[in-house]
TrEMBL record, chain B:
The chain crosses the membrane at residues 7-27, 71-92, 104-123, 156-180, 200-219, 262-282. Pfam families: BPD_transp_1 (PF00528). The gene is sugA. PROSITE patterns: ABC_TM1 (PS50928). It comes from Halobacillus karajensis. This is Trehalose transport system permease protein SugA. One of its GO terms (cellular component) is plasma membrane. Keywords: Cell membrane, Membrane, Transmembrane, Transmembrane helix, Transport.
Length: 439, 292, 290
């Protein structure tokens, strides 16, 4: 008797449990099969350009009848999200934004765009070669670099004028300018960022030293080349900023820490992404109208080489509305679109959250009106874009960057340059060998 | 007769749920660890490679680096947490009004999201505008020029402090309640016998705390080995790779380098290490029959 | 006997209190208490303070500034769907907690009261599931949920979380039940009450502090669970810890907004903790010492 009662109570408890479990399941999201609707994956974090696109999407829908749904995920989540959606082949997203360094590993989930471009007479060469390279794997273009950044030198105009310093053109001038600043003010000369991790942020400024000195990360056989004479010389110069004009804190800094340091008036120079310029000049910024910009410095008698990074837009292989997705990509890439957004920013006609200074197309970079409004900012940017090289677009890059970034940080925190680079080179060579590069 | 079936009926729901939510994925991931699976190349699992993934760990310099970092990190975090928690326990277990208030709010830090805490500490240790950096510099001028995250040693100290910060409140509460629950007569008798407070602590309090110390050590060890957010937010494994612990390395291998098979194998190696450590503790627990 | 000892000791205590030897340690003690409180609460206070700072002051040590609610307004803005994240988190926590507690109470009762062959092994096995770094389970879960259509659902997260909470809950609650004298049940059993009735009306009230301890512990685990929520959700079922990541962008951490969201995110936990703190502390004592 008692037993049966127990069992029935048990069963009813389990029933309640399972009811609870099923009761709270929410509907799962499947792919779109609707012809006239696409979903676009963007990253969160107050990107003005993305907000401006969203604000203008109504026009696109009116023109083409294609509805666009935006899905915003955290920036740090982007790679996992594209990958997991790709593995499941659900076609959850038709268009995705991604960071260039993720490209090679998610390439398998993306649709090459060359055929679409040929059919519609769409020209890829509207973009500078360097950023286009970042979207190209195995000679095929997989994404449109509608959001791209270039490294530039930023300096404090007010201080440079007061101390009668010219904006430095060579790495030597950079150090002497920095020293003059340090002799006369409490500011540091320049604030680099040597901190490890964060997708190898500490490598961008290093490559400007390396490439301008004729060095490179890999040679033509994909063997590490950064530890040859030019490479060691460049790296020593880069690290030795710590002995002269860089604050000790920069050993741990990531890009954001260094930018904040400059923004807070602790250093007189900073080399970084150009989009920061709008932040320096924004309302309430302590530096408003006091920041100058220039090309990244070079080695005496050699050429300046900048580095670029892109946040391109791509079509997914799993997309069930590829034609609509292509229409959308084309719309994003319209030169007028880009120019309008920036123009509205410079003339303050758009709300602050849609402000963006990103211009990627050659014609727009040289546009007279844009340059007039921006004190020639885009002409200087154009030069940097043209001189720029890019990190290798190989699937192993995240691992290579990890080894290099760690080594860079080790050298900044006291290890000797040559042996550290040699060790990094050896590790990278082993990795490349394992991946079958030298067969 | 009745009991024999009944006791299993009670266990069934928990076991079904555990089987579905834990054992099944564990078996699956173990299966993955025996395969090559490079997500950069293919979305499907690759060929069976036996224990190759496990073997390659032992020839991977990064594995040995992270193992060393893991041992240093875990060892110092566990010791610091336990010692500090006992001290906090002793300080806060007295019957006083203001202490009772502090005891009440002590648990709050444990409940804060570790990611939020990681960023908070990162900004507080910044040499330019970091609050803690300046407080330390103010009280101990000799340390004012230390850039906490820039040296292997100090970065580890900072990381350990943050993880101690997260676990200490919870572990302290365990000690506080144990101390407050101890029979007062024993201590009074010791006092009458003329025992100094040091003698009382080492001869009476500590032995009585033993079971809690063991449990607290197991919990802290398990949590420390799993710590992830503090490393991502605070050091990213730097300077160099000195704070790149195994759990962080597994994440990088699996979700940044997309080497899923290897990543799963590393996970099982970490599990093995944890298992060994815990079995050593458990032996003592079971032998002492203090918590069965 | 006790009262006698006390009587003898009280005058001694009063004498001692005056001597310097006694005052000095007491000052030291108070300073140490103060240091502990500062160490534990300054970071929290700093997050709270930052949440009211205007953007220009975020990366400074200023304590006096023109406080602003802008950060909170940004958190409540339409692009950040706080209400949805909150309700997702709440659903996941409540349902997981209820299921966890029900099955764990039953299981720990059985493990505590009956002879079960290989009990030690079972207990160790339950704990051992927690040794394995969660991260390697992500892919199996992902594939499994894809096939079941459970990706991006709160149900999926509940299933995942159950695997993390049940083992701890069984350990904590069983340790507590071991302490409750079996005689109480035997009495009730003789009176003819069924086993489940005994558990419900006699054991549960006695075990309340232990159950509360387990709830607090599991609450914290579920509420802060990040890794699985990050990968297994993307739109519909996003929970608060993942939502915090929305304040990290290309530019880095938007710390003032994150601090505001973080403050709102911590609030329920603080309330929950304060509500149950009495039983919680009790539960910890009784559950751990035999």
């Amino acid at each position: 008797m008692i037993k049966r009662k127990n069992i029935s109570t048990m069963i009813s408890m389990l029933l309640i449990l399972s009811f609870l479990v099923t009761g709270c399941s929410s509907s799962s999201s499947g792919g779109n099969s609707d012809d006239n609707k696409i979903s676009v994956l963007l990253s969160a974090g107050e990107v003005g350009q993305f907000n401006a696109w969203q604000a203008r999407t109504e026009e696109f829908t009116k023109e083409t009848g294609i509805e666009v749904e935006y899905i915003i995920v955290p920036y740090e989540n982007l790679l996992e999200d594209i990958t997991t959606a790709g593995i499941s082949g659900s076609g959850a997203y038709d268009v995705v934004a991604y960071l260039d360094t993720m490209g090679p590993s998610i390439q398998q989930f993306l649709e090459p765009l060359n055929e679409y471009a040929e059919e519609g007479d769409f020209q890829f060469d509207r973009w500078p070669e360097a950023v286009l390279n970042l979207s190209t794997y195995d000679d095929k273009v997989y994404s449109l670099p509608v959001r791209s950044h270039v490294q530039m030198l930023f300096y404090r105009k007010d201080i440079f004028e007061e101390l009668n310093i010219e904006s430095p053109e060579t790495w030597e001038e950079l150090v002497s300018a920095g020293q003059k600043v340090q002799d006369n003010t409490d500011l540091s000369g320049i604030v680099p960022y040597y901190g490890a991790g964060n997708n190898g942020q500490n490598l961008y400024m290093w490559t400007s030293y390396l490439w301008s000195n004729g060095g490179d990360i890999f040679d033509e056989n994909m063997k590490p080349a950064f530890n040859n004479k030019n490479g060691v010389e460049a790296t020593e110069r880069y690290i030795s900023l710590l002995d002269t004009i860089a604050p000790a804190g920069s050993k741990t800094f990531g890009e954001q820490d260094a930018r904040t340091n400059f923004q807070n008036g602790k250093s007189a120079m900073w080399i970084g992404w150009w989009w920061a310029y709008s932040g320096f000049n924004s309302d309430g910024s302590a530096l408003a109208d006091n920041v100058g910009f220039a090309q990244v410095p070079k080695w005496d008698g050699k050429e300046s080489v900048s580095n670029v990074s892109s946040f391109p837009m791509a079509m997914t292989k799993g997309s069930k509305n590829k034609d609509a997705a292509w229409e959308y990509l084309k719309w994003l890439a319209e030169p007028e679109m880009e120019k309008d957004i920036v123009m509205d920013t410079l003339t303050n006609e758009s709300p602050a959250e849609q402000h963006s200074i990103v211009v990627t197309q050659k014609a727009n970079l040289q546009d007279e009106k844009l340059n007039e409004l921006s004190d020639n900012f885009y002409n200087v940017g154009h030069k940097n874009f043209q001189s720029a090289k890019t990190f290798p677009t190989i699937p192993e890059w995240p691992q290579v960057a990890d080894i290099l970034s760690t080594a860079m940080n080790e050298m900044a925190t006291g290890k000797e340059v040559k042996p550290t680079l040699d060790q990094a080179a050896q590790r990278i060579e082993e990795l490349m060998k394992e991946q079958g590069y030298y067969e | 007769m009745k009991n024999r079936l009944f006791k299993y009926f009670l266990l069934i729901p928990a076991f079904i749920l555990l089987a579905l939510t834990t054992f099944y994925p564990l078996v699956r991931s173990f299966w993955i660890s025996l395969h090559e699976w490079d997500l950069k190349e293919t979305a499907e699992m690759g060929p069976f490679v036996g224990i190759n993934n496990y073997l390659s760990a032992f020839s991977d310099y990064q594995f040995w680096n992270t193992l060393k970092a893991t041992l240093i990190f875990t060892g110092s975090t566990v010791i610091a947490t336990i010692v500090l928690s006992i001290l906090v326990g002793l300080l806060l277990s007295k019957e006083k009004k203001h202490l009772s208030f502090i005891r009440a709010i002590l648990i709050i830090p444990f409940a804060v999201s570790p990611a939020l805490i990681g960023y908070s500490w990162r900004f507080m240790l910044n040499p330019d505008y970091g609050l803690f950096d300046q407080i330390i510099g103010f009280f101990i001028p000799a340390l004012s020029d230390v850039i906490w995250l820039s040296h292997e040693g100090t970065a580890m100290v900072a990381l350990v402090s943050v993880v101690v910060w997260i676990f200490m409140p919870f572990i302290s509460l365990m000690f506080i309640s144990a101390l407050m629950g101890m029979p007062k007569e024993v201590f009074e008798a010791a006092k009458v016998d003329g025992a100094s407070s040091f003698q009382t602590f080492f001869r009476i309090t500590l032995p009585m705390l033993q079971p809690i110390i063991l449990i607290a050590t197991i919990l802290t060890t398990m949590f420390t080995l799993k710590a992830f957010d503090p490393i991502v937010t605070l050091t990213q494994g730097g300077p160099g790779a000195s704070t790149s612990v195994l759990n962080f390395f597994i994440y990088k291998t699996g979700f940044q380098f997309f080497n899923l098979g290897y990543s799963a194998a590393l996970g099982y190696i970490l599990a093995g290490i944890t298992m060994v450590v815990v079995i050593v503790y458990m032996r003592r627990l079971v032998k002492g029959d203090q918590w069965n | 006997m006790n009262s006698q000892v006390n009587l003898e000791k009280q005058p001694k205590k009063a004498e001692n209190r005056i001597s310097i030897r006694k005052i000095f340690p007491s000052i030291l003690e108070n300073i140490s208490v103060l240091l502990i409180v500062l160490f534990l609460f300054v970071p929290l206070f700093w997050i709270f303070l930052t949440s009211f700072k205007p953007y220009e002051e975020v990366f400074t040590t200023s304590i006096f500034f023109q406080p602003t609610l802008e950060n909170y307004l940004a958190v409540f803005s339409s692009s950040f769907d706080l209400g949805k994240y909150y309700s997702n988190s709440t659903i996941v926590v409540v349902v997981t907690l209820i299921i966890t507690l029900v099955v764990s109470v039953l299981a720990s009762y059985s493990l505590s009261r009956f002879e079960i062959p290989g009990k030690q092994v079972i207990m160790f096995g339950i704990l051992a599931t927690q040794f394995i770094p969660l991260i390697i389970n992500v892919i199996p879960y992902f594939v499994m949920f894809r096939n079941l259509g459970l990706l991006d659902t709160t149900l999926g997260l509940i299933i995942v979380n159950l695997g993390h909470t049940i083992p701890y809950a069984i350990w904590l609650i069983k340790g507590f039940m071991d302490r409750i004298p079996i005689a109480i049940e035997e009495q009730a059993s003789i009176d003819g009450a069924s086993r489940l009735r005994i558990i419900w009306s006699i054991l549960l009230p006695l075990a309340k502090p232990g159950i509360i301890t387990a709830s607090v512990f599991c609450f914290v685990i579920i509420w802060n669970e990040f890794m699985f929520a990050l990968i297994l959700t993307n739109r519909e079922a996003v929970t608060l810890p993942v939502a915090l990541q929305f304040f990290i962008g290309e530019e880095g951490v938007i710390w003032n907004h994150m601090a505001a969201a973080g403050t709102l995110f911590v609030l329920p936990t603080v309330v929950f903790m304060l509500l149950v703190r009495k039983q919680f502390v009790q539960g910890m004592t009784s559950g751990s010492i035999k």
